[in-house]
Automatic annotation (TrEMBL):
Keywords: Isomerase. Pfam families: CM_2. GO terms for molecular function: chorismate mutase activity. Its EC number is 5.4.99.5. It comes from the Bacteria. Residues 18-109 form the Chorismate mutase domain. This is Chorismate mutase. GO terms for biological process: chorismate metabolic process; salicylic acid biosynthetic process. NCBIfam families: CM_mono_cladeE (TIGR01795), PRK09239.1 (NF006691).
Length: 123
C-alpha cells in the first residue's frame, strides 16, 4: 500500500484551527499585495505601449513586430527558469498581454481607440 500524500505526522496536521486560519490569512494578505503590484505594473506597461501604439500609427509602422516578440519570449523564458517559474506559463502570459497590446495598436491606427491619450483604462 502507498502512503497518502499527507499523513498525521505532517507538521500541518499539528496546527490548531486558529493557527491554520492565521497562516491562511497571512498568505492571502501577501497574495493580495502581489496581485495589487501586478495590476500596477500592468497599468504602467500599458501606458508605455499606448505611447508605442501612437508612435507606430503616426509613422505608419505595423502594430506587431514578430522579431521583437521572439526576443522578448526568449528573454522571459530564461528569466522564468532562473526564477523557478514554468517558462511555458511565462510565455503564455506574455503572448496574452502582447495580443491585447496589438489590439490596442490596431485601434489607435484605425482611429477606433476608445480612450485616446488615456492609456488602456475603461475597456
Ligand atoms: O515593441 C513593440 O514594438 C510593441 O509594440 C510592444 C509589444 C509589447 O507589448 O511588448 C507589442 C507588440 C509587438 O509585436 C511587440 C512588442
Amino acid at each position: 500500500m502507498t502512503e497518502p500524500a499527507a499523513t498525521r505526522d505532517d507538521a500541518s496536521y499539528s496546527k490548531s484551527p486558529d493557527a491554520v486560519r492565521a497562516e491562511l490569512g497571512r498568505l492571502r494578505d501577501s497574495i493580495d499585495n502581489i496581485d495589487a503590484a501586478v495590476v500596477h505594473m500592468l497599468a504602467e506597461r500599458f501606458k508605455c505601449t499606448q505611447q508605442v501604439g501612437r508612435l507606430k500609427a503616426e509613422h505608419h509602422l505595423p502594430p506587431a513586430d514578430p522579431n521583437r516578440e521572439a526576443r522578448q519570449i526568449t528573454r522571459l523564458r530564461e528569466l522564468a527558469v532562473n526564477a523557478k517559474l514554468d517558462p511555458a506559463f511565462a510565455e503564455k502570459l506574455l503572448n496574452f498581454i502582447i495580443a491585447e497590446v496589438i489590439r490596442h495598436h490596431e485601434q489607435i491606427a484605425d482611429g477606433t481607440d476608445p480612450t485616446p491619450g488615456n492609456g488602456a483604462a475603461g475597456r
